[in-house]
């Protein structure tokens, strides 16, 4: 397994800390905070460099893929519908965690939903994705962006968590760890929202194409056809949530909303 490595960041690494160096994406760090202090960055997971270097770790390809048009084409024209479905679970003024970057204008739109009183924290394990997301969120003074592995525990709880098309890209053990970490990071009464692939209806005309794409390019995606997202949560933790699932586009996509029960409810 790759080891965490020391980096001299040009951006805040820990978006969760209440440190003066952790600034809104739009504001330059003060001179004191800009002094390059070596910080442990999370290791790039083995599956990411083995399967997805071309998509996420190669800046030239990332620049091509990072447009709303390309993302919408990859999702067969469903990007806006799926974003709206996810965002409809959150409200202005909330503090929401987005545990992995998404190409296109996803983060800006989510920040707009949360409004000037709300806060969006975006994390990702890849430095180039974080740099690009910081630029995108420069116009959102309350947004924070930083490096973190979605599978690692967080040291705080959020009003909401929005996990968009991350689970299908990670192996099974990571699915378990990510679901646990994100549920743990949700406060009582808050929602963890997963939007991702699902098993399309057997008669779906795109089913053979998607199965081929998954076999060739996205080897961890087929599992979401076979397993409920709730089944990746430790049973005792899953019981602390109510679970609601809806499917879209003939079952090819799903939204799962886990709402954390408040004490005494
Ligand atoms: C959210 S997923 C895919 C989203 C969608 N395909 C899109 O349009 O971008 C892609 C991101 O997940 C990140 N990622 C993968 N594994 C991760 C992990 N364990 N923790 C945090 N980020 C991760 C990648 O670096 C990449 O930026």
UniProtKB/TrEMBL annotation:
Coiled coil: none annotated. The keyword Methyltransferase applies. Pfam families: Methyltransf_25 (PF13649). Gene3D superfamilies: Vaccinia Virus protein VP39. Keywords: Methyltransferase, Transferase. GO terms for biological process: methylation. Residues 96-190 form the Methyltransferase domain. One of its GO terms (molecular function) is methyltransferase activity. NCBIfam families: rhodoquin_RquA (NF038261). This is Methyltransferase domain-containing protein. The lineage of its organism: Bacteria, Pseudomonadati, Pseudomonadota, Alphaproteobacteria, Rhodospirillales.
